[in-house]
Amino acid sequence: RLILLISYGGGHITMVSRIYKYLLKRGLQAKIIPLTSAVSFCITNSIDYIKIEDFFNINSLDTNSKNAILKIAHQNHNNELGIPFSHTLAYYGIGLNQLFIEKGLSLGLEYFKTNGRKSFLPTNFAKTVIKDLKPNAIFTTNSPRMELAFRIIGKSMQIKTFAIDDLIGYFRRL
After folding, report:
1. Rounded Cα distance, 98 and 2, in Å
2. Structure confidence by residue, pLDDT tens digits, 73-105
């Protein structure tokens, strides 16, 4: 039985890593897919993780898509964050490739230019990973984009999905 955990960085990966360690201590099989700054967290804390770049091959794309993705990945990569460029390339490549499939190259680029990473909902990628890893449950935080894509596809495949919500300090009366 595999429990798959997907997380962005900051407080999100801190919460998810605690759940991951808890599951491992109880003898369960768990794997983390860290996104963006969560990668450097996993590296710094010696947490074994699944690399999204293992599921993305830029050379399988047409030349125009490949060039656009490479340009955007280079523009958005920040060496100071401790994230390998291969991860940045895969992250942007996965999101942009789905945009290009859904909207075409020109409209996809325009949509990304207007909305940035908010335009990403890589359900095709999530489906590929889920089919490959065959998890019994999926944990994410409440983030949109990649985490939401995994919850959507997990639910559609009747896999138990959990979204952890961090509203610390948010006590608005209803």
Report:
1. 27
2. 999 999 888 899 999 999 999 999 999 999 999
Residue recorded with tokens 């138990």:
160
Q: What type of residue is 44?
A: T
Predicted TM-score (pTM) of this structure: 0.91
d(CA 3, CA 164): 14
> What's the sign of the alpha-carbon dihedral 106, 111, 116, 121?
negative
DSSP string of 45-65? Answer: TT-----GGGG--GGGS-HHH
Contact 42, 6 (CB under 8 A): no
According to DSSP, the residues that pair with 137 across neighbouring strands are: 3, 160
Q: Using pLDDT thresholds of 50, 70 and 90, give the confidence band for residue 38.
A: very high
pLDDT at 58: 97
- Structural contact between residues 147 and 7, judged by C-beta atoms closer than 8 angstroms: yes
CA 3, CA 31: separation in Å to the nearest integer? 6
Nearest CA among 57, 68, 55, 52 for reference residue 8: 52
Q: Are the C-beta atoms of residues 42 and 34 closer than 8 Å to each other?
A: yes
| Location of structure tokens 């945009």 | 99
